[in-house]
Design a protein that fits this description.
With about 250 residues, the protein is an alpha/beta fold. It has eleven helices and nine strands. A five-stranded parallel β-sheet has the order 2-1-6-5-7, with helices on both faces. The protein has a two-stranded antiparallel sheet with strand order 3-4. Strands 8-9 form a two-stranded antiparallel ribbon. α3 runs parallel beside α5, α9 packs across α10 and α9 packs across α11. The structure holds the ligand CCN(CC)Cc1ccc(CNC(=O)c2csc3nc[nH]c(=O)c23)cc1. The site of the ligand CCN(CC)Cc1ccc(CNC(=O)c2csc3nc[nH]c(=O)c23)cc1 has 16 residues, from β5. The site of ligand 9D3 has 16 residues, from β5.
Length: about 250
């Protein structure tokens, strides 16, 4: 699958695409990423990509024309494969696992990264299929959200994460069990005077799995009870799970 990214800061993406386990997905072409700078499609010597907002007010607005020209080039390069145009925007719908699965399926997508105060509404009305937000906090642009989506999509590709099962165990994936993750420990057994949990050092796999499951249930009950309710109504809690939760009160 292929993602085309329209961004005024393509230099932000290179280090990201070359770092960590997900680089395998990008280098192998499992997830192709092409970067496009609207400035390369802007006219005049100053190659304007933004201008002052009609009606006044702070900041600048991204002009529609350079974005539209870049998009036309992307569409031609993709062979008009019907890929959706996703705009990252503070007013977008919250990106979650369902969204990652949706946009990480099929041909991929065209990602538009806003900067400044936003993009001329006429570009959005004409070309944007879905607006996505990372959450209710203010960032300087859509690039980090775009990388967040690319990272989450790459992790879902077969063979990208070492052992196949690990992305299956990724929490927040309601399709699997949607509980928060358990605490992790590694060598040394005692660090800073604190020993790792004896259960994990026992070598009894059933006991270890039970301990991890209990930790996930307790953590989720404490921090994200709504995830627990979702898991319960989806029939993903066993009798042993309910017994542990009852003990926690
Ligand atoms: C003055 C009101 N602000 C809207 C909340 C203006 C504004 C701030 C920051 C931006 C740049 N942010 C994004 O493009 C963005 C894109 S996705 C996203 N998710 C969470 N938070 C974000 O700021 C974003 C655009 C407009």
């Amino acid at each position: 699958m292929r993602f085309d990214v329209l961004t005024l800061f393509p230099e932000l993406f290179a280090p990201f695409l070359q770092a960590g386990v997900t680089r395998r997905a990008y280098e192998s072409g499992q997830v192709q990423v092409q970067l496009w700078n609207p400035r390369d499609f802007a006219e005049g010597n100053y190659r304007r990509v933004d201008d002052r907002p009609f009606g006044g007010g702070p900041g600048m607005v991204m002009m529609a024309e350079p974005l539209a020209r870049a998009l036309a080039t992307v569409r031609a390069a993709r062979g008009d494969d019907g890929a959706p145009v996703l705009l990252f925007s503070p007013i977008g719908e919250r990106l979650d696992h369902a969204g990652v699965e949706r946009w990480g399926a099929g041909p991929g997508a065209i990602l538009v990264c806003g900067r400044y105060e936003g993009i001329d509404q006429r570009f959005i009305d004409r070309f944007v299929d879905v607006q996505l937000s990372l959450g209710d906090f203010v960032l300087s642009g859509g690039e980090i959200p775009a990388m967040a989506l690319l990272d989450a999509v790459a992790r879902l590709q077969p063979g990208v994460l070492g052992d196949e099962g690990s992305h299956q165990a990724d929490s927040f994936n309601p399709a699997l069990d949607g509980l928060l993750d358990c605490p992790h420990y590694t060598r040394p057994e005692v660090w800073d005077g604190v020993a790792a949990p004896a259960e994990l050092l026992s070598g009894h796999h059933a006991q270890i799995e039970r301990w991890r499951r209990d930790q996930r249930l307790a953590l989720t009950a404490a921090r994200r009870p709504e995830l627990l309710d979702a898991a319960r109504s989806a029939g993903r809690l066993s009798r042993a799970d309910e017994a542990l939760l009852a003990k926690l009160g």
